[in-house]
Structure formats: C-alpha cells, structure tokens
User: Fold these one by one.
Assistant:
Number 1:
Amino acid sequence: MLNRMNLEGAWSLQLDEQKHGLQLPFEDSITLPNTTSHARKGKKNTEVKIGSLTDEYAFEGFAWFAREVEVPEELQDKPCFLFLERTRVTTVWVDGEEMGTQNSLNTPHVYDLTGTLSEGKHTITIRVDNTNYPTKGGHMTSEDTQTNWNGITGRVDLQFYSHDYLENIQTYTDPVKKTVTLTAHLNGRWDAAQLHISACSSNTDIKHTVKEQTFQLSSNNVSVTYEMGEDAQLWSDLKPNLYELKVELKAVSGEVLDSHNVLIGLREFRADGDKFTINGNKTFLRGKHDGLIFPLTGYAPTDVEEWLRIMTTSKSYGINHYRFHTCCPPEAAFIAADMLGIYMEPELPFWGTITDETHEQHNQAEQDYLIREGYAILREFGNHPSFVMMSLGNELWGSKERLNDILKQYKAYDSRHLYTEGSNNFQFVPVILEEDDFYCGVRFSKERLFRGSYAMCDAPLGHVQTDFPGTMKDYDEQIWPSAKLDDGDKESGNQSIQIQYGTEMRTVQAETAEEQLIPRIPVISHEIGQYATYPNFKEIEKYTGPLKAKNFEVFRTRLEAKGLGHLAEAYFENSGKLAVACYKEELEAAFRTKKLAGFQLLDLQDFSGQGTALVGVLDAFMDSKGLVTPEEWRTFCSDAVLLARFDRYNYEAGESFEADIQLSYYRTDSLNGKTLKWELINNGDVLVEGEMEVSVGQDLNYINIGSIHTQLPSVTSMTQVVLKLSIAGTDIYKNYDLWIYPVHQELDWTGTHLFRELNDQAKELLERGEDILLLPDPASLTHSIEGTYSTDFWCYPMFRSISESMNKPTPVGTMGLYIDNKHPVFESFPTETHSTYPWWSIVMNSRSIVLDDTVPKLQPIVQTIDNFERNHKLSLLFEARVLNGRVVVGTFDDKEIAHTPEGKQFLNSILQYVKSDDYHPQIQLQYDELARLL
C-alpha cells in the first residue's frame, strides 16, 4: 500500500426510515466511525423492552453518509479502494456514480474505486441499510446482543496502491519445520518485482529476529516458503509467541512497490482422537460463549485495547477459548486473542435449517450468502494463529448431506482450522458427520447427557439440578458407553418433535439414528452452566450509552410493588453465591471427564437479552459482580485443576471420610516428585493432615495422585470443615466445604405440639396461649412452589413461555435461599445466608408457600428467592403470633429429611428453639390468615 487516507471524522448524515431515497441537502452530521444510535441520531425511542436492553435511539432503514475528499496529484488514477471495516448492507457512490453494493456482516466492505478519483475534490456517498439482510444474521443483528445497529464502525479509509501490488496474502505455518508458506495474488507484472520477507518476534521474552529472504517470482500467483530457523518460538495458549512478518514487493531497482505487515504464530491445532492438540501437546478447551454484548455502545469494539481488556479478564478466570455464537468478531478481537493465547471459534450468522433443493422452503440465495460469508471469514482472519476452529451455525437442522458438503468445501479451501457442522445441531437426535473435525453438543441421545443443567423443556434435567450432591459425577459413560444404553421407547425413522428454537418453540422433522452414536472425534460440551442470579439494580447506573437497562427498572418496580424492594441486594448476593457453587460442580464434572475435549460456558458474563439471562459471575460489562474472585474461580477452571472425588458433603461424627485425589493437568512442566498436602481444617485449626507424592503415569493429563482415608472427629455440635488440597511449589490448590454432625439417637419431640394441619385442636391450643409446630405435608400446600436446590436455568420468563407453548411442565424458577442466619432457630444449625449443601435434602423435600398477601413485616426465617417475573414472597420456614399463642411453620417433609444427618440436625435445632427463652415471634397473624396460606 502506498498511502492510506483516513476518512474518520465528520460526515453528512440523513436518516431515511421509509427508504424514500436521498433528499438533498443533508440536514445533519455524524462523526464516523459510529452508529446512529450511539451518536443519538433520530427520534428517541420511548419503548420499554423487558426481555432485553432498550436502545433509546433504535433506527431501521436507510442511513445516508457523505463527505468530500481531496485527492492529491500523486495519487490520482492509482489503484484505490474504499475500506469500511464493519457495517451492514452498503451501497457506494462517487460523484453520483454507483460503485456497487456489498452485504457482508462479518468482514470489511472493500470497494474498488480505481479510475474514479482524479486529482481534486470528490464526494463519496454511502448508504447503509440495516433491514434488507440476505439472512436473519443471528447475533450479528439481534436486539438481544449488540443490537441491529446502523452505521460504520472501525476503520474508514481510502487505500492507494502502486500499479503492482499484492492481495489476499495468506500464511500457512509449519511448527515442525519452522517455516511459513506465504501465498498471494500479484496484481501487475511479476517479472519486474521481487518478494522480500523478514520477521521479528513481537511479544516474546526472548527477542528473535529472522533474517530477510528474497524470492524471485514466476507468476502472478505467489507461493513461497520462508524459513524461520531453529530458534523460532511456537504459539499456544500457554506461550502465545507472535511474529510480525514484513512482506515487501520491490522493483528490481529496490523501489518498494507494496508493503504489508502480517501477524503470525507458528502453530498446528489438530484433533487427535478424543482430544485437541496444539503443536503435538494435548490441550483442553475452557471456553466461553460470546454474542458480542457491549452495553455502552451497542456494537462490537474494533480497537485492540478494548478486546485486550475483555479477554484479559476472561483469561484471569481460566478461559482459553471463545465460541462466537452466530457471529464473527472484528479483527481486533483476533489480534487480542493472538497476543493472549485464546483459541477462537467464529460461527456463521445462522440459526435455523440448512435445506437442499428438495425442501419446499429451500432458499438457495440465503445459503449461497452464508457459504460466501464463511469463505470471507477464512480469507480475512485466517492468518491469525488464534483462529483455530469454525462452526456452520447454532442448533441447525435440515440436510445432513448439504452440511457435510459445505464442511468438505471449507476444509479443501483452508486446512489451517478445524470445522464442525454447527453447535448442538439436531438437539435430541444428534449426528456426527463424516467431515466433522469435532463435535459440539449437550447429549448423544435423550438420556446420554454430558452437561449438568438443562431447560425444563429439554428434560431430563442435569445432575446439578437433580442429583444428591457429591463429586463423583463425570460423563465418560455418557460419551463412550461401556454397553448399549436403552433410551426407553425411542422410535426409529422420521418423526415430528418439538424443540426450543431461540426464544420460541418450533416443530421439526427428526431422523432417529438406528445405531448408538459413539464419537471418534473431540467432544465439546455446549453452552454449559446457565445458572441465573437475581438482578443487581445498582448496575442500572452503569448504562450511560444509548442502551438502557429499562428491563432492570421494571424488575425493580415489580419487586417494590410486592413490598420486597429492601431485599433486592440480598436476593442478588445470595442467588449469586448459589450460582457460583453450581458452576463449580458443573465445571469440575467436565474436568473429571477423560473423554471430554473442552466446554463452552454460557456464560462467564451476563446475557442482556432473551428474557434477560443474568447467568454470569461478571456483569454484561465484563466487570466482577463480587460473587467470586478470579483466583478462586481458577481453582475449578484452569489448566491445572485438583479434584477430590467423594460421595457426599455431609457426615456424622466418627464416620470414615474417603476421597480419591486427581489432577486435570494441561501444563508442560512435570509434577513428578512434587508433594500434595491435604488438610481438614476447622476455624484455622488443622484436625488431620497428610501428604502424597505426585507420580505421573502414562496419562499426563489425568493424574491419580492418591486417596484419603481418615476418621472424622467425634464432634458434639454441627461443625463445618474445609478439605484443603495444595501442591507444594505451585499455584495449584483446591478447597471443599464439608459438614460433620453429632450423632443423634432420636429427635426429642417431648413438650412440642406438632400438627400436620390447622384443625380445631390447634386453634384451641393457640387460643389458650399454647405454642404449636406446624409441619404440613408439602404435597398438601396448594399455594406453594416446588422446592429445588439449584438456581434457575437461564431465564424463567423465556423458558416458562417455551414450556407452555410445548405443553410441557414449566420451570420451578426459584433461585436458592435467603436465610436469616442470625436467628436463634439456628443455634444448633449454623448456616450461611445462602444455600449450602446442608440445605440440599431439606429444600428438595419441600415446597415454599406464597406469602404475598401477608403483612409486609412478616419476613420468612428461611426465604426462597423467586425470579424477577413472579417475585413471590416464598417461605420455607417462618414464625408468628397467632391468637394468644405462637407458631413455627415449616414446609418441608420432616419425616423424609430425618433420615439424613443434616435434616436431623436441622429438626433438632428447631425443636430446641421452640422450647427456648429465645422464642419470640414479632409479627401477629390472624388465625384465618394463617389458614388461607395453607
């Protein structure tokens, strides 16, 4: 390139919502790069969106941009291109002459203006249309993510070249031979030029400069191999060593005709059996979903600095992989990922059905567009070492043959990346195609699940949602069954099934496989987690751009209308603590699974749309929500994760505690001879401890360190202990909370008036000033919500609606407990304010009654946090004065939980409380009021 004329700055603007055409003169202006919304152009939007953020200046239609440029004499009639880095559907005019239309959503629009720009002033006019897309666009155009903005973001410039220049430069690295093969097309005379290539490391600890090499050209199609030398350093997520390749096209006289700087990394990312390898070493993908959510601007940043901030934060939480849901980020994201060592997977902007010509709704134009987008992504970003994978879309259906054919075309075109048919394609009836390099999904049949949580409409649910808590679960048997599994009354052949499709329900034709699906390629678990937290209303003030959190404002108003506004912060914090615990088990189950190649979280950050899915430990701005530190999160999400395998968290005094200690390990440093120390600690005091030598066997990535066998102490009160694991001389450690309970021979109900329902006898006792303990059968409670331990999946409003449309059970929708842990009822059952594992059996054998119509001052001792749509005041345990007596109401199955040490301890603590001098309910309820609750 000879010269770049920067066109950033002031442009004339005209908004044309009705698409009438350009009406001169222009009446407004805008500074580009920008979007019309971010610049606050047009009519202010008064709509209030509940399921997503609200764009206050949302605009759809034509936006016309124009500016005058002056071309100096030395550049006139040179090959010239208008470069628009990121935009929508554009049409360009120069001095009124149309130059064409382009519609890539993922890659720059580059217009050839050669021959149109003589010396002097010219007017460039650009029309941007954000309505007439060849495809819906997935998260490239969704209001749920970056919005359907209109404008031009990133670089806007004119690029001038000599009459001999290179285009479509592609680099193919060989980390074994330590060479780079460069291909390009030379426009101009090949026999009058030479190619000069040099390289220098750009971010390595050890500086490495590679000498310049000169290549004689033999045609306009350039292909040369540049030797980097034995000292060349390789690129990986652990050591992201980069080189800047300087490529110069020179005339025989030495004049530089064209020059390019290309960022490269020597790497080979491959699928090897059930794992991925980087330069021959196995790696495990610790991924996150990304839908291009940027609430301050409403569009994806195009500067490297912002992407470095974002991805450095992700890296601090152990992430080494990004899957972009139906979108591709700008080049700045790839550069940041190159620098930090993050494996990138862009995805075609499609979420639907890929058909062939036999389908009645086949849309060949849309399909051709999507295929072109894939080629454009490969050409534009394929040189980046971080770009290692590509997906054809999200949750696709349709023609398996057509999908396989598209994969085959891409693999033949560019072998630098791995390819998959899509993310979670065919849902309940998955398939692995011949050309798939890896598989990304959530199940291999209805029952063969390999993630920990699911929506109710996709039941069965996952083990985090339903199973007795312990740390034994892995998915090896589900991924690679040791015997043929029976999936019940599954029918073979074609059948119509209902599926979740985005935020809606859709009926599709599903072809059931005759044989059990066994993967022979790496398997990635798709969109794992999705554990929701209550909104943090303090976040509202952070929305200073065009996007406003009016949904948060509505949720806050709803909560206040229920008289619960004062509990908003407690709901947020306590639901968040439970979500972190759910994520810990979710992630550890993935790391325990030897047959898994990686996972993709949904998500590390909140998702602003699709009903408002606050599933992150970071907010939508990628700022911490204060629920967990990066250091703690990395103990269960990193390249070295210690794993204690034990069957439960709750024990009786004197029981034997047994745990196998394992390590998921993807570092290059050997741990042979290192020492693992384990301790059981209570309030800083070491109760028992031991050591084991780390001995690495044949499996370098799953290390069985040893086993713990110890007798737990004979405690006289409920005691929380911490199992602490650490490997000396490293940063590898892990903590688990365990609970030990004194042995109770039997519960002492003496002197307690226990009732299962309100009846005349109970009323008579209360009238006489006696106390009763009311423990109704949870199944009898008509105004109640089912008890479930795990926090809500994704977003209650969205999946309630989908379940209803599919005539399936709706989600429970609750978000854990908020416990008044200073209350004297917990004298013998000390607890946090949030859900912990002593509560699991209690909650799972309960129903929470709805207290919406009671006096505001009646606050449950143990409250179940409801979602932001219903906002019920839900009680698991409350007390009140009724008539002349006192009553404690618990809505759990005491007979069932009495079989567990934690349940027995809980009941014992309640019985002690109702007989104590501390029993002082503050709120008076009418007898009829209490009766109505039940």
Number 2:
Amino acid sequence: MNATMSGTRLFALALSVALGGPVTAEPIVQAKPASAVTVDIPYQAFTLPNGLRVLVHTDRKAPIVAVNLWYHVGSKDEPVGRTGFAHLFEHLMFNGSENAPGEYFTPFESVGATDMNGTTNSDRTNYFENVPTTALDMALWMESDRMGHLLGAIDQKTLDEQRGVVQNEKRQMENQPYGQLNEVVARTMFPVGHPYHHFAIGSMNDLNAASLDDVRTWFRTWYGPNNTVLVLAGDIDLATAREKATRYFGHIPATPTMTQPKVDLAVPSNNGRTEIEDKVSQVLLQRNWNVPQSGERDADLLDLTAYILAGSASSRLAERLVHQDQLADSVDATNYGSQLAGSFFIRAMVRPGVDSARVEVIIEEELKRLLMDGPGADELARAKTSYRASFVRGIERIGGFGGKADVLASCATFAGDPACFRKSLDTIANATPAEVRAVSAKWLGNPSHTFLIKPGDRKPLGEEAPAVPALLRLPAVDARYSTSASDVDRLQGVPQVGSFPPSNFPVLQYATLKNGSKLILAERHDTPIVHISYEFAGGYSSDYGGKLGTANFANQMLGEGAGDLNSLAFKARAEELGAELTAGATLDSSSASLSALTENLDASVQLFARMLREPRFDSAEIERVKGQWLSAIAQEKAFPQAAALRVLPPLLYGDAHPYGMPFTGSGTEVSVAAIGRQDLLNYQGKWLRPEQATVIVVGDATLEQMVTVLDRHFGSWKGEGAASTRMEVPQVTRPSAPRVFLIDKPGAVQANIYAGGLVPSVKDPGAVQMALSNNVLGGVFTARLNMNLREDKHWSYGAYTFLTSALGQRPFVAIAPVQIDKVAESLTEMNREIGDYGSGKVPATPTEVAKVIHSDLRSQPGAFETAEGVLGTIRNMVHEDRPDNWLQVRNAQVAAFTPELAKVAAKNLDANGLTWVIVGDLSKIEAPVRALRLGEVTVIDTDGKPIAAMDK
C-alpha cells in the first residue's frame, strides 16, 4: 500500500477539488493499543439456602434494574419423544402463574419495562426485563411466582394455546428461504442420541404428544432455585439485592439436582456433504466443523480464527471471494460455543451464475494457508481490537440480549465462575500468531461437512420417527437445601408500584462547527464509546424522478474506500481502530455514523471525515456492489415479508409519487443496473453537505473536546453550488374500497398478511395521539391484534401494527404471518379489529388508554439507558424539526391522552380504504380469500405487476 501512496493521494486531492474544495492531506492519527482502557463487570455474589445463586452488579447510570434469570435447562435435556419441550415451557411460563393469572406481560407493560423477553437454546432458558428501580419488587414477585407457583395455572387450554403458538413459530421459521438449514445441520453434525441432534424448537409430532403430566414432570425436574442463576444489575446494591431475593425467592423449595450431559464434541470421522433444493434466489454454501465447547481456551482462540478467515470486511476470504475474484456476495465465519460442543462454520452466499465449486476451492486454499502459516501480526491485532471493541459495546447495556447481566449469568451457568469473561479477554489479548495457527490446525484440520442450498423445489424435511420417552425417575432433593419463611402474602396479588423515576434524558449541549453544521451533544461517560451521527436530508424520496435506489446506494458506497484507502484498506483501518462506520438512508433522510472507542476518537473521526469528504466511488467497486444489490433484491423477493414491503408502497401511493417505491430502499433491478459513478457524485453534491446538516454526538466526550476534534477534521468542508431542498410530498386520496393483492409462494406453510393504509404525517399536530392510538390496536404485545390472533386463536406467532415515520402521509401497516389453513379466518379477524376500532364501534377503553400512557412514560428510563437510545430520540427531533424541549412537550401530550383522543386518532384507520397484500401458496389461499368478498382480488408478481389468469 505504501508504494502507491503518492499516486492515490494525488487522485484523492483531485477528486476532493471536484466534490467540495481542496482537502489538506493530514498525517494519519495512530491507533492506541487494544488494552488502552480496562473494561470489566464488577459483581458481588451470594447463594440462598435453597440453592439460588444471585449476582449483583451496580451501575447507577439510569434508575433501572435488569432482572435476568437463567435456568440451566435447554433442548439438550429433552428425552427422546419430547423434543421442543424446553422451548414450549418458555412460552408456558409467560402465560400467567397461580397468583397472577392472565398475560405475564401486562403488569410489566404498565410499569414501562424494557428489553423484556425470554429465549431457549440447547443449553439454557432465560427470562429478562429491565424495570424502573421502584418496580423491582413487582418484577421479583412475578419472577418468583412463576418459579414457585406455576403448575396450578397450567391447564389443558393453556397447553393447547401455547403449543399452537410454538407450532406457528416453527412454521414461520420453516417458511423462510434457507429455513431448513438449522435443522439439517443439527441432524447431520450430531448423531442420533446426542443431545444436540435435534433443533430447539422440536418436532410437530412431539409437540402434539405433550400432555399435562409431561408438563408437570418437566417443571418439577428443572425449574427450581438450585438450577437457576438470578442476576440483578443496575440501580441496586448488595444489601438490597440480598433482602429482596430472600423475601421473594427464599421460600421456594429446591428441585432434584439433575446430572448435566457429558461433553461430547462428536467430531466426524469423515468429510461429508449435503445438498438441498429450496425456493431461494442464490446458492448458500456452508462448511461446518465440530470444535471445543464454550469456556475452553481453544474456543476463545478459534474466535480469532473466525475473524481472520471471514469474520470481518477485510478478512482473507472477504478479500478473495468478495473483492478480488467476486465469486460471492458475502462470506462470514462464526465460532459458536455451546455447553457440550462448539460449532465453527464458514458461510458464503455464492453470486448468481457462479459455480459454487470455485468458491469451495478458494475456501480450502485460504484455510490451508492459515493452517500452514498462521495469521500475520497485523490481522491478528485487528482481530483482537475488534473482539475487545465488540465486548465494550455489548456491556454498555445492563440487561437485554448480550448485556452485562447476560455475560455474568452465562459465565455462572456454564463455567461456574461469573468472571469467566475475564479469562477469555486475557486469552484474546495475549494470543500469539503461533497459538492461533496451532489451534486452527488442531480443530479445522479435522473432517468437516459441507452444506449446499441451491435454487429448486423445496421438499419437506419430514420428521424422524416418533418415540416413546423413557420413564423419568427423579432423584431425591439434596438435603443441604432448605427454605426460609416469607412474609409475602401472594393472595394480595401483584404488588402495586406507587411511584416512578423521572425520565433520565441527558441535558443537550449545542454548538456550531466551522463548516456551518449544528452540533448536538449528550454526554454519557459510563462506557468508553463515542457515537457520532451526521444527519442529512436526501432519503429514498430524493430518488423520485431519477434512479430508484440511488440514495441508499450512494450512502453504502461511502464505506467502500476514501482518499488514498481503497475499499479493503478503508475497512482494515476501521478495524485497527475498533471503529464502526456506516451510512444509509430512510424515506426522508440519510445519515453517516461512527461508533468509536474513546481512546481512538481522534483517529476514528479522521477516518469518518475522509469517508464523507473523500469517497472514492471507484467504478470497479460500484460494479461489485451493484452485483450484491441485485442479489439482495432477488433475496427480498424470495422472503415473504420483504416481498410484501416491496410492492405495498407503490400500491398505497402510486408509482408517480416520491414514496411509491420499495420501502427497503434498494430500488429495482433496472434502476440499480443503471446507476453510475456520476449519479453518486451528483447525490453527494446535492445532499451530503455540511451547511444544513446536524452532527449528533452521544457518549464519552465533552462539548469542548468534540468541537475541537470535529473542527479539526470537518472544519474546512464546504459544499459546492446550490444545495437541494426537500420537495413537498403530495397528498394521496385513499381508495374508495378495499383492495386485495395476492403473491404466490408455492409450498409456503404460512400466509403473510399485510394491510396498509395512509395516515397523517409525523408532523401532524395529532401525531403523538396517533402513535398511542396505534399501540392500543397493535403496537405492543398485549394489544388487541396480537391477543386475538396469537393468544386467543393461536393462528399466528405474532400480529402487530406499526406506523412508519414520514414527513408526508405515512403508512399504517398491520402484519400477521398465519398458518396457511387459517388465512381467510385471520383476514376476517384483522379486518374486523381494524374496522371496529377505526369506526369507533369498539373504541379504546380507559384501561387500554392508561396502559399505553404508562408504558410510554414509564419506559423512558430504560429506553434512554444506552447511547443509541438517546441518539435515536435526538435524530427524530432533528428530522422532524422539533424544538429543543420536544421531549417535555411530547410527554405532556402523552400524559393528556384520553379515550376520546384515541377515538379521534383512530378515525384515520379506515378499513374500507385498506390495501391488503397476502403472500402464500396461491393454490391454498386464493379460493378462501376470494370467497370473503372483501374487495377486488388481483394476483400480482413480486414486482407488483398483475398476472393474467392464464399465467398463473
């Protein structure tokens, strides 16, 4: 790279003159060592007499507490003939307990819980939520009630309901392109009898065979305090945690101590190959190895191997397959650790028209080269920095997926040491090229299995022969466990929460940069990360009258090389710094973002400035990325959800409207193929300019510091010529009658139902009320639509409504993936729910209104816990041109929301003007949909064009 530095710098300077004035070549700011700032998760621990392990981490940045329970039971523990039981039980435990019957989510929504969910994998089941500090007693009461008082709440009706929901979740997974892969991999890589031989969601036969007696035995076996880790993280201390954990959980008796299955890597003795045909647009190639389980030193080192091979944009296989030979649209490598064995795999999306054998040859070549020579010092250093940066970003969150509570719980559950992450960080930091080479050769030199999914007709996998589970004889409970008396009167019901902490939105600070950009800063010093987002106009709608997809394409190309750095060199430089640089567009705006480690802030901002000021827009890279985009459009058409979102906007707005384009922002095959370098330069010159832009900074920095560093690298940036301005978005008249459009997906086991309509702009005076009114209908888990189709009918895994932000009329969309034999019934229910609500026949009740008010206002401490949450709120304020005190203005409107205001807002939802798009197997859905006589029915292709009857 140094040999061509002079020539590339001259090219960059010439290009910069054309795009916005000369840029003085700056000396490169050097990255600091990866260990410059120490990161840790300090904790304290205690164990109750009944065996419950409790971990406490104090973090006072927000008035919330993360409650995270890990039960050490997963699909690995399921007996033959009862696969899917752990996951089914996860659902059952959200369906109410003896002293809190009804929906488990209801009291949590009323207190503003955030990051709330439950998950099941092969090794564990977890439940987690972040709650305001004052609601901690309620959360612990609820969690302890389902741990200690569940069985009386499970009857046949409840079992049947949640079994139906799980089966629809399984159908939803299988309905996706490549949706059979995970189950095929599990069956292939682990032999019959191995705990990992079956996928966590289980088989339909086994789910159908589950009885109430099975459920009761399963619960008594696995869901006791002695098989659980409870993590309390956030606004809490040890004394408080001990008192509350003892009060709410101490009375629950222990369950038998079950033996965990032994570690069994099941390394294949020979190489293997499996080829599958599926309704896909391009070949997926995946090569799998069985490797050491999580917690092993070799497993940590294999994380580095994955990164070096294909885990980053500048990795070896990305360079060969994506950039140099352009045989694949993407390639990645993952080392996935589990309790009994690990799985290492390389996955490539083969470019259409390319022989996948060529891809396999290159994967083998690069693998052999790494096993022979090991990694270079520079690529290993990048891998270490990226690993550490990923960890730092993850632990900004106290709860939720991958937050600090998750890290502690995982280490405690599987390693018996809550601090096991420290050992992994140390292993990574001190790894040598020789160690990585040796471990790579040891495990990736073993036999592997190649999976190939290619376009064709999907064949059902079929289920393995049903089996009768062996009688489970439970051992006696260990005598060392005991209980403590509790003063909690559970007959009084769920504890009421009397007060709530105020919103913790940070104070905003303002400045103006030398280039005219407005700077908004929110300081957050809890994590050594700084998030920067440069906000511009020029979203998808700016493509109107030109080539659809230009806005998004131009923004993506910003990261494909800048100044004297070609695409690979640019990506490698970002990885050296531990920086993440992205750019993209939405309907009305665009943004370029940087997430930087504090220790490398100056060098990262320098790279960010080069990305915005000196994008190369190399013709060769444009053609390469075009190929990726064309593949992505084909993938969108193959996935039911994306296919619907491509055709729905033109149907709602019309083709001759700025919003009448695919909401994916990817354009069409014809428009993308026509995009050239000059189109990107034109877009940059019109829209990516500093004069009317806003820079948002949230994170570990001060105003003085940010003005200095931003002015250093952006201060001389100027736009040339007249800047473009947003066009006025024309109004669209609603259809006078419902319309129904069908897209055929032969063999689909689900139908994806979309209903679309238009409501007033996000700038409308009633926009806040419209959003709240939408939440009553379908915006939250316990809203009407989901309770109907999922919890009552169990025809769907989830049914929701949402409003897209738009400065013009914005789309209202209702979504429900439903089992294919219930499409007409589901369509009827959706139409009735929307119609009854919009017409005022069944208006919002005071209880529903109170719920959405409380959920909105009380969730803000959790919503603003992370820098990204704060940044997102500021971004909305910028693009919607809100006043500086908008949050206070908005919250006052939320607090003043009433059933009457909900009714007024709901009038925007006119069932008689809805546009329906249904994606499914036409042979199964067309006749029942037509029989409803809901509206004129038209069969269309994935471009939205009508298909004549003879073509069907």
